[in-house]
Amino acid sequence: MKINAIKTLLAVLLLALASGPAAAAGGASNLEPSGINVNDTASLQRGAKMFVNYCLSCHEASYMRYKRLSEDLGLSEEMVMDNMIFADAKIGDLMTIAMDPEDSARWFGKTPPNLTLIARARGADWLYGFLRSFYQDESGRWNNLLLPNAAMPHVMWSLQGIQVMSHGEGDEAGQLELQTPGLMSPEEYDDTIRDLVAYLDYMSEPAKLKRKNVGVWVMLFLAVFAFMAYLLKAEFWRDVH
Question: In this structure, what CATH number is given to the domain that contains residue 115?
Answer without folding.
Answer: 1.10.760.10
